Amino acid sequence: MRAPRRAKETFNYHHSSLRNIIERTFGVWKARWALLRDMHVNYTYKHQVSIVIASMAIHNFIRKVGRFDEAFNTAQQESYNPRQGRTSNEEVSATSNSDHNVLYMAAIRDIIAQDIMDS
After folding, report:
1. Residue pair 55/33 in contact by the 8 Å Cβ criterion
2. What is the pLDDT of residues 74-104, one digit of tens each?
3. Is residue 40 within 8 Å of residue 48, measured between CB atoms?
4. Geometric angle at alpha carbon 42, from 37 and 46, rounded to 5°
5. Helix intervals (H) in the chain
6. Does residue 39 contact residue 48 with C-beta atoms inside 8 Å?
7. Cα 112 to Cα 9, 14, 100, 117, 119, distances in angstroms
8. How far apart are CA 25 and CA 71, in angstroms?
């Protein structure tokens, strides 16, 4: 595989890498805390927020002080596919794709891409 050469290629490479890490982290988090997968059915929004914050704090504590984390070691394997780690299409909120938003985000991407190239 060839290395990215231009600013947008470099941005896309780093963006994709970061997105993979984030998706794996959420997959491990949901695998570790099964409650997170279906809590929208049994808990009010206020309680869901508290559960997410509490489980995130415990998860981060385990990551920081734990010498061995089986969930993350499993996720490091290339063939890792978290159980029910993906959200359904109904759970994904729609985003507005107005011309203004598209242009604004393209400008932000270009600024970040140039910063990456400059560093």
Report:
1. yes
2. 766 655 555 444 444 434 444 556 778 888 8
3. yes
4. 90
5. 7-32, 35-42, 45-65, 70-75, 99-118
6. yes
7. 12, 10, 18, 9, 11
8. 10
Closest CA to 55 of 28, 73, 95: 28
**Closest listed residue to residue 26, CA positions, set 80, 102, 79, 78:** 80
Residue type, 24: R
Which tokens in the block code for residue 66? 């734990």
Residue 32 CA, distance from chain mean position: 16
Cβ atoms 63, 69 nearer than 8 A: yes
End-to-end CA distance of the chain: 22
Average pLDDT value for residue range 35-45? 85
